[in-house]
Specification:
The chain is α+β, with helices and mostly antiparallel strands. Keywords: Transferase.
């Protein structure tokens, strides 16, 4: 794998910037749009937890496990959420795109497919990944449908895989895109973005 480190990626609708502590206040504002932390099947930080979540992601970046981004909407310069590369395996190389959330007001606006196009393009074309994974809660139908729309294929379900903040144990649905599928997935994402407003 090409050395993976903080990078800024700019697309049609969003700019993905390396996560930094100074993003805190705008991330709190973004997460309040839709009160996303109240969805029981997600792991979105509450406003009170945001500073600790930023610190946690930056600490995991130091270990090589994660590369976190802040998502900024280009049309108005507002921060609308967070995403990451995680489970980074530099030897294979492969990684997961996860820990993603976007303000409710940004959903359905083209920002998410644009973000995924940037992350997948960098993973396959710059970092040389053989595969990129996506994980989500079995009960998060919106997320499962969004991942499938990207062109990812469902690999399976990890039963009783992860304890959630409310104490329940989730079944995790695992999807992936492999390098040979990337040109088709890229074409599909570009087509969607060209059709969007």
């Amino acid at each position: 794998m090409t050395t993976i480190g903080p990078v800024t990626l700019t697309g049609k609708y969003v700019q993905l910037e390396p996560l930094a502590p100074e993003h805190h206040d705008e991330l709190v504002e973004a997460v309040q749009d839709g009160e996303l932390w109240k969805l029981w099947y997600t792991r979105v930080p509450s406003p009170e937890q945001m500073r600790a979540e930023i610190e946690r992601r930056l600490e995991l970046q130091q270990t090589g496990y994660m590369l976190p981004f802040t998502t900024r909407r280009l049309s108005d310069g507002k921060i609308i959420g967070m995403t990451t590369y995680c489970n980074i395996d530099a030897d294979t190389p492969r990684l997961e795109i996860g820990y993603t959330w976007n303000a409710a007001g940004a959903q359905g606006s083209g920002t998410n497919p644009d973000s995924k196009l940037l992350l997948l393009g960098h993973a396959f074309e710059t970092l040389g990944c053989t595969a990129v994974e996506f994980h989500t809660h079995w009960m998060n139908q919106q997320s499962r449908e969004a991942i499938a729309r990207l062109g990812a294929k469902q690999d399976g379900v990890l039963r009783a895989h992860l304890r959630m903040p409310d104490g329940t144990v989730r079944d995790t649905v695992v999807f992936s895109i492999i390098a040979s599928e990337w040109p088709m997935v890229k074409s599909g994402l570009e087509f969607r973005l060209n059709k969007s407003r």
